[in-house]
Design goal:
6 helices; 195 residues; 0% strand; single chain; mainly alpha
Length: 195
């Protein structure tokens, strides 16, 4: 193979030396001397563009070099207070003095009462309006993606169901308003609502 590849005597000798030593074969073997020429560094080429050459032998860093870096340093543990110690002392004093935890029960009861008062009952009509709007937006997104044909019938059926429920709620509200208005006006029951 060496004769066919037209290698010089120096190159053949260099390759045979590498094989005898058990080393890996060199990627480049310079034709005339054992001295490798210094690579010419172009002024404009950044280091990022040139691929790095990997040697066959792994280069392991010694333990001292690894430990000298920041990889083995740990952050110091700094404990922080997770609860208010003064409140805990007061609570313990109350338990020892009265036999119960009075302060905690009052706080919990007031929190539960305020939470119940703050939650308003949701208006079903507004929920239905939002649901219809969400379905319209979903259908528009599916049509933009080319899937409108697949979902159109399902979404339109759901929208019609929501609209029907909204009509029923609207009729109930209008009847309630009519009853309230007729009760407030004296003699209002005599008039015909169809007039």
């Amino acid at each position: 193979m060496m004769e066919e590849s037209k290698l010089t005597r120096f190159q053949r000798r260099h390759l045979m030396d590498c094989v005898n030593r058990g080393d890996t074969l060199p990627l480049q073997c310079h034709p005339t001397s054992s001295k490798e020429p210094a690579p010419a560094v172009p002024a404009f080429s950044p280091a990022v563009c040139q691929p790095s050459r990997l040697s066959a032998k792994p280069h392991l860093r010694p333990a001292k070099v690894c430990q000298a870096g920041d990889a083995y340093t740990r952050e110091r543990f700094r404990p922080q207070a997770r609860r208010d110690l003064e409140k805990e002392k007061q609570r313990l004093q109350n338990i020892l003095a009265t036999g119960k935890d009075v302060v905690e029960h009052k706080v919990q009861q007031t929190l539960v009462q305020t939470e119940e008062e703050e939650i308003p009952e949701p208006d079903r009509f507004e929920e239905l309006v939002n649901e219809v709007q969400e379905r319209k937006e979903f259908l528009a997104e599916m049509e933009a993606l080319g899937q409108g044909k697949k979902y159109r019938r399902i979404i339109l059926t759901e929208i019609s169901q929501k609209m029907r429920e909204m009509e029923i709620i609207d009729k109930k509200k209008s009847e309630e308003m009519r009853e309230i208005m007729t009760k407030d006006i004296p003699g209002g029951n005599k008039s015909d609502p169809c007039d």
